[in-house]
Amino acid sequence: MSILDVVEAHLQRLLERISGLVAVQLSDRDGITLAKTAESKVNVSKLSLVFSNASDQASKLGLGANSTITTFYGGYIIVQATQAPLVITFIGTEELNVGLVKKCLPSLRNSLENVREKVDSVIAATS
Amino acid sequence: MDEPKAFVNWQAVQKILEKENTAGITSTLLFNFKGSLLTSAGDVKNEHIISALMANIWKSYAESQKNLNFMLVDCEEGHLGIAGIGRFLICMYTSDFKFPLGLLKAKIEKVVAKLDKPLSSVF
């Protein structure tokens, strides 16, 4: 099993644990998908790119570095978290337990540390 | 249909914002979609920078997905919530990292409910 298979399995377990959660996707700052649980109607690649820029700007608000941005739309909720250079996107219904999503983030970030280092080294090698 | 009203009693709007700036809330800002600050309440330091940045962030998300109605931004040293009212954006933030996010959202929604009718009529 590759690292990304393990990550996908972890993301799938989150779907079962968190009520209202419909899909989870891991991508890089440019919106390229690395792992996901299921297809969703939301264009996550585009949103990951939006989040990368928004997070950089939000870190200049004077409240310290940005960690998550949660957006509430008519009918669904999106929680995005940064683990530079990775972006984790959670998509849920209106009933999504946002608090539980944020509670899961530290352990998810720990499990993604290997992936983050590999992506970081690829970016460093190509730049 | 009612004629849209061009004038808003900004002093009254300011009083509503000050009333909601209770313990734990650092500041409340009201600005337009271009980031120009209209009025604010609380301990404001970089309010023009915050309004400009948040208007830009809101615009980016609103253009990528339809029906955006609320946003929560979590940072290391505080939280910020933002919602739309007519042609404006209301933003409330706290420098207290432990301030409950649900309470922040509820306070903003309360301000939106109070100001929605008068501000939605502004053209």
Question: In words, what does this structure look like?
Answer:
The complex is a heterodimer of chains A (127) and B (123). With 127 residues, chain A is of the alpha+beta class. Chain A starts with a helix and ends with a helix. Chain A has 4 helices and 5 strands; from the N terminus they run αββαβββαα. Chain A has helices at residues 3-17, 44-58, 98-111, 113-126, and strands at 21-28, 33-36, 66-73, 76-83, 86-93. In chain A, strands 2-1-5-4-3 form a 5-stranded antiparallel β-sheet, with helices on both faces. In chain A, a hairpin with a 4-residue loop joins strand 1 (21-28) and strand 2 (33-36). In chain A, 46% of the residues lie in helices and 28% in strands. By secondary structure, chain B is α+β, with helices and mostly antiparallel strands. In chain B, 40% of the residues lie in helices and 28% in strands. In chain B, strands 2-1-5-4-3 form a 5-stranded antiparallel β-sheet, with helices on both faces. Chain B is globular and about 35 Å long. Chain B starts with 9 loop residues before the first helix and ends with a helix. The mean pLDDT of chain B is 88. Chain A binds chain B through residues 42-43, 46-47, 50, 53-54, 57-75, 78, 98-99, 102, and chain B through 45-46, 49-50, 53-54, 56-57, 60-61, 64-80, 93, 95, 101-102.
Key traits:
heterodimer, A: alpha+beta, 4 helices, globular, B: 123 residues, alpha+beta, five-stranded antiparallel sheet
The span between the termini of chain B is: 14 Å
Percent of residues in helices of chain A: 40-55%
Helix segment count of chain A?
4
Give a short account of the largest sheet of chain B. 5 strands, antiparallel
Describe the largest sheet of chain A: 5 strands, antiparallel
C-alpha-based Rg of chain A, rounded: 14 Å
Low-confidence stretches of chain A: none
Strand content of chain B: 25-35%
Shape of chain A: globular
